[in-house]
Design brief:
The complex is a heterodimer of chains A (112) and B (112). Chain A has 112 residues and is an all-beta fold. Chain A has no helices and eleven strands. Chain A is globular and about 40 Å long. Classes of the chains: A mainly beta (112), B mainly beta (112).
Chain lengths: 112, 112
């Protein structure tokens, strides 16, 4: 099925460990986004990539890095995980504002 | 910071009733979108309304936009138990920014 694929779906990390969340879309969208969702906070933008080769910080970028590997793939890296990064992470893609945003199913990350 | 804010935070109704939820935002927008999120899942795009549109329909959904009041409403008619979900509005800026900003959502429970 066409859409946004995120891996892994679940992950438990120890404080200080690193990991990369992967995201790939097959809709030929130019823009991709990483959000985190915490209870009572809605979705907050971490980083986005308006087009291949560009990345920009969102509302809550501290502690994260991203790579727009190619048009399809946009990864999110936690270099040294902290308990405050326990959250559900969503990747999304869009073709600017034409048709709305397509979301992946999320990665549930727990940092202990 | 959230651009859009949904109201009410929670809504509980009986099957067959209509559900209305509202979204207010702070700055001018290009468009406003509504999304649904079922528990533990990613967000699903429902409808997009542009700043020059006042009303839009999609099946049992009706969305209105009042740019003078910086507000939108989502009406779900003849609700079903399957409509139980969280509903989010998302806005982006008219200053050339197409980055979606989400509210905290309205949690809708439809009792069979």
């Amino acid at each position: 099925n066409a859409g946004v694929t995120q891996t892994p779906k679940f992950q438990v990390l120890k404080t200080g460990q690193s990991m990369t969340l992967q995201c790939a879309q097959d809709m030929n969208h130019n823009s991709m986004y990483w959000y985190r969702q915490d209870p009572g906070m809605g979705l907050r933008l971490i980083y986005y990539s308006a087009s291949e080769g560009t990345t920009d910080k969102g509302e809550v970028p501290n502690g994260y890095n991203v790579s727009r590997l190619n048009k399809r793939e946009f990864s999110l890296r936690l270099e040294s995980a902290a308990p405050s990064q326990t959250s559900v992470y969503f990747c999304a893609s869009s073709e600017r504002d034409l048709y709305g945003y397509t979301f992946g199913s999320g990665t549930r990350l727990t940092v202990v | 910071s959230q651009q859009g804010e949904e109201d009410p935070q929670a809504l509980s109704i009986q099957e067959g009733e209509n559900a209305t939820m509202n979204c207010s935002y702070k700055t001018s927008i290009n468009n406003l979108q509504w999304y649904r999120q079922n528990s533990g899942r990613g967000l699903v795009h429902l409808i997009l309304i542009r700043s020059n549109e006042r009303e839009k329909h999609s099946g049992r959904l009706r969305v209105t936009l009042d740019t003078s009041k910086k507000s939108s409403s989502l009406l779900i008619t003849a609700s079903r138990a399957a409509d139980t979900a969280s509903y989010f509005c998302a806005t982006d800026g008219s200053g050339g920014s197409y980055i979606p900003t989400f509210g905290r959502g309205t949690s809708l429970i439809v009792h069979p």
